[in-house]
Structures are given as C-alpha cells and as structure tokens.
Amino acid sequence: MKVLHILNSNKYSGAENVVITIIKNMPQNFECCYLSCSGPIEKTLLENGIRFKLVDKLSINAIKRVVKEFSPDIIHAHDFKASVLASKIKFKGVLISHIHNNNPFMRTWNLKSFLYFTCIKKFKYILGVSNSILTECVYNEKMSAKFENIGNPIDIDSLNSLYEKKQKIYDIIFVGRLSEQKDPLRFINIIKQIQEQNKQIKVVMIGDGELMPDVLREINKYNLNNVIEVLGFKDNPFEYILKSKIMFMTSKWEGFGLVVVEALSMHVPVACTRVGGMPELISEKSGQVCDDDKDFIDFYNKLQDDLNYEAYSEGAFLQALKLGNIKEYIKKLTDFVYPNV
To answer: Which uninterrupted H or E stretch holds 53?
Structure first.
C-alpha cells in the first residue's frame, strides 16, 4: 500500500517530526513518500532515509504531478493548507486530513475556517493530536463523525537513546518557533521577573521565526543580553535540552506539544501553559501547568532546592515512559485509519 504524506512546510519541526516517525515505523508492506516545499527539511529527510518529493511551492498542480508519478492509495495531508489543497484534486483513493495544531482561526467563522469546512466531505478521517482540536472548533458537530484523536507517536526508546547526563549550563530553555503561537515575548518577560530575584540565571532560546526582531529588541530593552542566549534554529535541539535544568512552554495555543515529551524523556521538568494537549502530558511530579506568570516563577523557585529538582527530574522521565506509544500508534494507523492491506 502506498501512502503520500503532504506538508506545506520546508523546515523540521513538530509535525515534520511526527511524519518522519510514522514513515520510519510503518510495516514493510507500506511504501511512503514525503511531499513538501523545498528547504532545510531536505537534509533531515536524507539523514533519515525518507523517500521524498520537494516542490518550490505546494499547489494543486504540484500535488497532481506527484500523485500521478507516485500513484498513492492514500493521501495523508498534514494541517490545514495541505488538507485543503489535496481535497481539490481528483483522487480515487482515501484522503486523510491530519491536524497537528489547534489554530485559533478554527474557533470562529472566517474565510480560513469556512474553506476547511467545505472540504470535510472529502476526508475519510480527520485526525487530531488532542481533543481540543475538535471541542474548540466552531463546527465541531460537523467534524465529530470523522474525527479521531490519535495523539502523537512517541518512541521513548529512541528518545532515551539520546539521553546522557550532561553538565547543566542553562537554568531554563525555550524551544519553539518565534511566533505569536509560542509567545516568546511573554517568556522573556517571565525571565525578566526571575532575573530581578536571581541575577545569576542563565537562559537559552532555540528557534527562529517572524518575531526574532521583537525578541532581540525585548532582550535588549530589559538588559538581558548577558542572561538570554538566542541561538536561532537548530537541527538538533536535544543537546541544548540536555544542558538545561527546566523547560518553559509559554504557548498561546498548541495541538499536542511534542517538545514537552522530548524534554521529559531527557529528565528535564517542564512548566507549560494550560492549552491544547499539554496539560495531559504533565504529571504533578514532572512539571507544572501554569495559569499565570507567577506559576512559572514559583515553579522555578521550587526547583532551586536540589532535592526537589532531583525528584522532578526523575519524575519527568517516569512520566515520559508512561507516554510512550509508538507500537500502539502505528497499529491504530494500519488497522483502523488506513484501510486493511
């Protein structure tokens, strides 16, 4: 059986990680191809031995060309734009829409949400990474018959193989796109409040995006240049997670929050906002779900005690073990979502 995965992105991030994990763990009787825009993602695909087709711009015609060449039985389109574009071609196989991000535009009627609404009838299934994608959608009743909360594939054995005990250089790490969704400006403001109490704090931010100029300006405004290192996009953020004591996730919205699990698997406790699927990933002994800035600050202060930190570090890994689901996830895809082979 041949599956074409379609993404609109050209860089390696959460959804791209999920698709690569799916492809690498599919049974041998599945042949997969990854279609997306040209860019840095090519390096990651080559390193992982993934068959791919890259185009300058994802469009209806580009999808048509690749479908004609690859002849898939299933089109597995990831996120909104890829799903909408894929629904516009004539295709006799099964079309699946997989939503990784609980985007706020789906909470109200607008041009984007209406466009996706008109495509629903074309999808065999709509997969989501958390129930919030369905419950917060303005037309959730229309989606519910086709919606399946499939979560994310989590290969703890693979993640744990990357773990090694390293010296903690950073007190706090931020990993994510510098965009409104991840709210890096709030993160900086929280660090400013912590730094007023602890002048020795050391912080690192991994990621790039449209808010980079604003991030640099805010850091300069608060005189935090010697406190926060902004390292931009990194192919491998894991080495920086390993060197950090705590991760802060200040997202305004999320689908799942895969980087939370990655941090937990590396024994790094996580403080996150109460959005999307993230609260379901955090246990009382592995991190903190935060409702305001004070919760982030209190969690940081709590973990300054060495015994507390060791307990939460161990709790993080134990929680990650509970979240491992790669075998069950792939079985659900092959036995339920995809037609039987």
So the answer is: strand 52-55
